[in-house]
Design a protein that fits this description.
The chain is mainly alpha-helical. It is built from six helices and three strands; from the N terminus they run αααββαααβ. The chain binds heme C. Heme C (HEC) binds next to helix 3 and helix 4.
């Protein structure tokens, strides 16, 4: 390249840069946009827990009257445990009052329980084995946020004993 040409290029690129700067500086000052707070859009731990409780079907057994209300009971009534037993070859079980139960276990114990427990029906422990840890923690926090309410559900009754409460029989029957 000829030296004069190189000189011209240097000059013109310098002039171009100066022009860009001039235009940029001439722009009216814009306020820096506020950063978007993603937490406003993402559900809180409690909302995620509420969603999980609903989809996990926990109210079906652990909330008295859930079925009859068509799922319309307010949260204040949720998960207070059932006085009606489920009777089958395993004996008679009662869906626990989870509002009281969570007061007596830590969040870590709650998570561990869903990984390891597999006990009497019809609590479907097997369905919940692979739930994300964060969902389990959210569920725990949601139930805790509702506060304790009600009485503990009746104690488990062994297969050879008669329950003293109403119960639903979980035994398949052949048509007569
Ligand atoms: C089909 C009915 C049913 C459903 C659905 C169900 N449970 Fe249960 N659950 C029970 C019964 C019955 C027991 C008591 C079992 C026993 O005595 O061994 C129980 C026990 C439990 C326990 C143990 C409490 C204790 O006292 O040791 C926890 C925790 C629990 N359920 C949480 C849940 C959660 C959370 C959900 C939803 C994700 C859920 N359950 C869904 C019926 C159900």
């Amino acid at each position: 390249m000829r030296p004069q040409f190189v000189q011209l290029c240097r000059w013109s690129s310098g002039a171009f840069l100066a022009a860009v700067l001039l235009v940029a500086c001439a722009q009216p000052q814009r306020a820096t946009p506020a950063p978007i707070d993603v937490r406003l859009q993402a559900p809180s731990a409690e909302q995620a827990g509420r969603y999980f409780i609903l989809l996990g079907g926990c109210n079906d057994c652990h909330t008295p009257g859930w079925e009859q209300s068509g799922g319309q009971l307010p949260e204040s009534e949720w998960l207070t445990g059932s006085p009606v037993g489920f009777r089958g070859p395993w004996g008679t079980t009662y869906a626990s009052n989870l509002r009281i139960f969570v007061q007596n276990v830590t969040e870590d114990q709650w998570v561990e329980m869903f990984r390891t427990r597999a006990e009497r029906p019809p609590m479907p422990w097997m369905n919940y084995r692979t739930i994300n840890e964060s969902d389990l923690r959210a569920a725990y926090r949601f139930i805790r946020s509702l506060g304790p309410k009600g009485e503990p559900a009746p104690e488990y009754v062994a297969p050879d004993q008669e329950p003293r409460t109403p119960y639903i029989v979980f035994v398949p029957r052949m048509p007569e």
